[in-house]
Design a protein that fits this description.
It is a single chain. This protein is mostly helical. Helices cover 47% and strands 3% of the residues. It has six helices and two strands, in the order E-H-E-H-H-H-H-H. The chain has a two-stranded antiparallel sheet. Helix 2 runs antiparallel to helix 5 and helix 5 packs antiparallel against helix 6. Pfam families: Pkinase.
């Protein structure tokens, strides 16, 4: 994975940072692409993409006739009731369908297009701890 940090400075009391658009496509928050503002929810989006990579074994940018990004590919398949087709065969025996479903739901919330609809990282961490306890 090749990623770049943007050149930015943080002012006390600010909740966002203005910067020139930099980063690795596939991980970039759609709002950041529109506004050039990084927020805490931008990190949540990128973390959600990593969760999708872990679950599917796919890279964030897909070379396909239909889909370009893992997020769109994943959301379309899950909404079509095809989560089981997305789970990486290398991890299939490592969890239960209940865990995979819950993990997918957390990831889907992280990659919502609008930042205010995404959870905080604290909420994500708590939900992942709950999923881990679902293990048989």
């Amino acid at each position: 994975m090749n990623s770049q940090c943007s050149q930015a400075s943080i002012t006390v009391g600010k909740t966002s940072v203005e910067t020139a658009i930099r980063g690795t496509y596939g991980y970039l928050d759609p709002e950041y692409l529109r506004t050039s503002l990084l927020t805490e929810k931008s990190d949540v989006y990128s973390f959600g993409v990593i969760l999708l990579e872990l679950l599917t074994g796919r890279l964030p940018v897909i070379k396909s006739d239909t889909f370009r990004y893992l997020v769109k590919y994943f959301v379309t398949h899950v909404e079509g009731g095809r989560l089981v087709d997305l789970i990486d065969v290398r991890i299939y025996d490592e969890g239960t369908m209940e865990q995979f479903q819950a993990f997918a739901e957390v990831a889907m919330r992280c990659v919502r297009r609008e930042s205010e609809e995404r959870p905080t990282m604290m909420e994500v961490a708590q939900e992942l701890r709950v999923i881990r306890r679902l293990a048989p």
